[in-house]
């Protein structure tokens, strides 16, 4: 038990140092703009197909399953606004972040872990290149920026999926559907949901980078780093979401 607690505190201290180093290196030149843009492409563009499919299915399934309940109360007209609010406030941000945790955090953990094991990171240090700034800072910045954009994209795709689901049993034009959505959508429905996605993205990139950058020697450690990155990043998404809901309810 003592050893277990000691490992927990050691990990907490190491993560804190790793995070503080990120903010220290963030504002120090040189700035790796080219690598940052490349990571934005890898994190954002290459994740779009998966987010598109998931977002569309979320909106479609939520609409189809919610319709019978609303019909019992004669409130079918509320279906577009209910689906859109559910997606924007909670479902799309959390599900998209979990997908990113599974795909992006594991990818970063495995990539940096393999570089650590094959001593590529040591070679960068010998070549007078700051591996932390080149490998870690760019990836954390990319996930922090791209995850919110992916969530906003998933919101629109999910609302369109709701439109398709609504027209399976009903009939409504796309313009009328989006008009109903925007009529009941307020700024405070959208703003807190977007703000928390920046924290989702930051911790997904941070945890994936930390696990990969600190992988131990041996090829087995690459898989361990990727697996631990997924678990820890997914757990962080739920914890951040829980805190965000409490703060939103308190201040808004």
From TrEMBL:
The keyword rRNA-binding does not apply. The chain crosses the membrane at residues 43-64, 91-113, 134-154, 190-210, 230-251. Keywords: Membrane, Transmembrane, Transmembrane helix. It holds the Pfam family MlaE. It comes from the Bacteria. Coiled coil: none annotated. One of its GO terms (molecular function) is phospholipid transporter activity. One of its GO terms (cellular component) is ATP-binding cassette (ABC) transporter complex. The keyword Transmembrane applies. This is ABC transporter permease. It comes from Flavobacterium franklandianum.
């Amino acid at each position: 038990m003592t050893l277990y607690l000691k490992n927990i505190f050691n990990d907490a201290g190491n993560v804190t140092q790793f995070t503080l180093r990120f903010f220290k290196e963030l504002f120090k030149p040189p700035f790796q703009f080219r690598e940052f843009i490349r990571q934005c492409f890898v994190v954002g563009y290459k994740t779009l197909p998966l987010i598109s499919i998931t977002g569309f299915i979320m909106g479609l399934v939520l609409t189809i399953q919610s319709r019978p309940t609303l019909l019992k109360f004669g409130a079918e007209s509320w279906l577009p606004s209910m689906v859109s609010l559910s997606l924007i406030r909670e479902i799309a941000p959390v599900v998209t972040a979990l997908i990113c945790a599974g795909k992006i955090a594991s990818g970063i953990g495995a990539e940096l872990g393999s570089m650590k094991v094959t001593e590529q990171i040591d070679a960068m240090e010998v070549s007078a290149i700051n591996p932390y700034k080149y490998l870690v800072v760019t990836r954390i910045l990319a996930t922090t920026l791209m995850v919110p954009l992916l969530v906003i994209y998933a919101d629109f795709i999910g609302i369109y999926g709701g439109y398709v689901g609504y027209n399976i049993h009903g009939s409504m034009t796309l313009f009328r559907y989006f008009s109903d959505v925007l009529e009941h959508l307020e700024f405070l429905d959208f703003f807190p949901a977007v703000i928390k996605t920046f924290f989702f993205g930051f911790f997904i990139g941070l945890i994936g980078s930390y696990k990969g950058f600190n992988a131990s020697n041996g090829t087995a450690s690459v898989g361990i780093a990727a697996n631990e990155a997924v678990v820890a990043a997914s757990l962080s998404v739920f914890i951040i979401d829980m805190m965000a809901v409490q703060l939103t309810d308190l201040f808004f």
